[in-house]
Design goal:
This protein has about 270 residues and is α+β, with helices and mostly antiparallel strands. The protein has two domains: about 150 residues, no CATH class; about 100 residues, Orthogonal Bundle (Arc Repressor Mutant, subunit A), CATH 1.10.10.60. Helices cover about 45% and strands about 20% of the residues. It is built from nine helices and ten strands. A six-stranded mixed sheet has the order 1-6-3-8-9-10, covered by helices on one side. Strands 2-7 form a two-stranded antiparallel ribbon. The protein has a two-stranded antiparallel ribbon with strand order 4-5. It is globular, with a radius of gyration of 20 Å. The chain starts with 9 loop residues before the first strand and ends with a helix.
């Protein structure tokens, strides 16, 4: 079984290793084209092989056991320069979900989607400490957490039985989740979504928990938090516009919600 062994090095935009030597023309051209940024945090762990990476216009090499932490809206390489023997673990952290990709043989070899909102909060707490507190031990604790998570997903990926294609109920729930994510505001209710799915309220609620790992009220709360962080990064929304985007009737209702959930989600 493939296993991740932490090298002792956590790389962030505030702590980038020395730049690499001279690059070949192929690598330089690939790095020039392959970059993006997005609204969620990501973790890249090098399990085997090496990786030429670009973060905030700085180019460096990652080695086996290295962990790279990417904050939202940080410009970085979209993927990694191909290496036949390399194995990489990507974790994309949303408010309520963790998307995992295992990269082998220059392609995605396995993917998983885990409902783990409270665990993401736990990781964010340690992640934030890295940027605010010196010598707090947060880096060591975070490394242990991430290492355990990576090895769990590697072990689970090898042991899980690949099920046949998802049935109709799974497809319906996927469409419902996409519908929520794309709503101009988050003004939806359990009753309205059950009606949209064609299920009874009780049956829909049960399927919703199976699909997301949480009850509808908690899920909607986390989607609001997720959208809140996306909005404040853009910095071009008025308080009234923000209230509408988050599904609140007024600016006052938004401020009350923010105050009530400030400690839980570090708003």
């Amino acid at each position: 079984m493939q296993k991740f062994n932490f090298s002792g090095r956590i790389v962030t935009s505030a702590c980038i290793p020395g730049e690499t030597g001279e690059l070949t023309q192929d690598i330089a051209e690939w790095l020039r084209k392959q970059h993006h940024k997005h609204d969620f945090k990501e973790i890249l762990a090098i399990i085997d092989g090496t990786c030429i990476f670009k973060l905030k216009n700085k180019i460096f090499q990652l080695n086996p056991g290295d962990i790279l932490l990417l904050n939202s809206m940080e410009s970085h390489t979209e993927g990694h320069y191909p290496c036949n023997n390399a194995v990489y673990w990507w974790g994309s952290f949303w408010t309520d979900m963790l998307r995992i990709h295992i990269w082998k043989n220059n392609k995605i070899a396995d993917s998983d989607l885990l409902a783990m909102g409270a665990f993401n909060d736990f990781i964010y707490h340690h992640w934030n400490e890295l940027n605010t507190t010196k010598n707090s031990g947060a880096d060591e604790e975070l490394a242990h957490i991430i290492t355990a998570l990576i090895n769990y997903s590697l072990r689970n990926g090898e042991n899980k039985k690949h099920s046949p294609p998802a049935g109709k109920q799974y497809e319906i729930m996927t469409k419902i989740i996409d519908y929520i994510a794309n709503m101009p505001s988050l003004n939806c209710t359990l009753d309205s979504l059950a009606l949209l799915s064609g299920y009874s309220k009780v049956h829909f609620q049960r399927k919703f928990v199976e699909y997301t790992g949480m009850v509808f009220r908690e899920y909607l709360l986390r989607k609001r938090v997720e959208r809140y962080f996306r909005i404040i990064v853009k910095q071009d929304f008025s308080l009234k516009e923000m209230a509408y985007e988050l599904g609140f009737s007024s600016s006052a209702a938004l401020l009350h919600w923010k105050q009530r959930n400030q400690k839980k989600f570090h708003l």
